[in-house]
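This is your field. Pick holes in the following sequence-structure pair:
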Amino acid sequence: MEQFQIETAQNISIDQNTAHLGDRMLAYIIDSFIILVYTILIIWLLLSLDIDFSDMWALYLLLGLPAFLYYVLLETFMDGKTVGKSLLHIRVVKIDGSKPNFSSYFVRWILRIIDVVLTSGGVAVLTILIRGKGQRVGDIAAGTTVISEKKKVFLKDTLLRDLPEDYSPKFPQVTIFKDREMQTIKELFDSAKRNGDHNVILSLSNRIKKVTDITSDLKPIEFVDIVIKDYNFYTQQL
C-alpha cells in the first residue's frame, strides 16, 4: 500500500493510502460476477419469451445497457464505488483527494478497454505497479486514483482527549476542521512534544490561527492543546 499526499482546503497536508492491488482485483472479480449473473438472467428471460430473433436482439441490447454501463453508472451514483469496491472498502477519488465528476468516471470507463478488456487486466496491473499512486491508464487520463478507506485505529492515534465535566471551550472556530485534519494536527503536536520540537508547535499554532482567524496570546503549546480539546468538546456534542 503506497501513500500520497493531498492538500485540503485548509492547506493541511494529509497522507492518503492507495488501495492494495489485491483489493482492486478482488473488487473487479466481484463486479464481473455480478455482471455475468445479470447477463445470464437477461438471456434466460429472453429465451423464455416467444418473440422473433430480431426483436430479441433489440431487447437484449436495451436490457443489457445496465451491465454495459455498470462501472460508470455505479461509480457516478455511489460516490466512486461499485458493489465490489464497497465490499472491499475502496473508492475512486481525484488525485487531490476531491470527488471526481462524471467526466472523470467516464474517462476511466472508456479506457477500461485498454486497461482491462483487450489485455485481460495486464496493462492495468503493469501501470499500477510502475506508475505508483494506484493509477492505471484510465486513472492517469482522468486524474484519479483508488484509495483504501480501511483504517487501523489505535488508542494513541484517536482524537479523544480526557475532558473534565465542567470543561469550557474557548475557540468555537475550530469546528471548521474535519476529523482527518484535526487528527493530523494532533499527531504532529504529540510528536513535537515528545521530541521537544518547538518550531513544529509554533508552525502549527500559526497555521491554525491563520485558517481560523483566531487571535490569542497563549503560548503556542498551550494554544494548540486547547484547540485539540475544544475540537473534541464540540464534536462530542454532535
Remarks:
- The chain has a mean pLDDT of 85.
- The longest helix spans residues 21-48.
